[in-house]
Design goal:
It is a single chain. The protein is α+β, with helices and mostly antiparallel strands. It folds into 2 domains: about 80 residues, ATP Synthase, domain 1; about 40 residues, no CATH class. The chain is built from 2 helices and 8 strands. α1 packs antiparallel against α2. The protein is globular and about 50 Å long.
Length: about 130
């Protein structure tokens, strides 16, 4: 597996994924990026979106991630996510609740900066909802 590299997905609760992968599509702050073996070192924050993990042999696993960052180093890729939900476990009720919570955050924001952050989070959640047709 010369094109495989070490990958870890970590949430505050636990280590979700650890192993060799061929590629990972990361929803970075500046847009989606595909990380392959021997990628240049990089550190980016995450935006809410889909993390797509490609394993040797063609299997894929997808997670909805929100918050945190991704670090590419010579040792591999580590994604530390505030929220990481296996798409198999993600249901429309969870996403709808997150959207409702974000709408309340926008309404309750104390200042423009907080409102802008809450609106950005809400917009991203609605994009995920639309992408997944939930």
């Amino acid at each position: 597996m010369p094109n495989a590299f070490k990958f870890e997905l970590v949430s505050p609760e636990r280590l979700l994924v650890s192993g060799d992968v061929e590629q990972v599509v990361v929803p970075g702050a500046e847009g989606e990026m595909t990380v392959l073996a021997h990628h240049a070192p990089l550190l980016t924050t995450l935006r809410p979106g889909l993390l797509d993990i490609g394993y040797p042999g063609g299997e894929h696993k997808r997670y909805f991630v929100r918050g945190g960052f991704a670090e590419v180093s010579p040792a591999g890729l580590i994604v530390l996510a505030e929220t990481a939900i296996d798409l198999i476990e993600l249901d429309s009720a969870q996403l709808n609740q997150a959207i409702k919570d974000s709408e309340e955050d926008v309404a309750d924001a104390a200042d423009d900066s907080a409102r802008d952050r809450a609106q950005t989070k809400l917009d991203h959640l609605r994009q995920v909802q639309s992408t997944l047709n939930l």
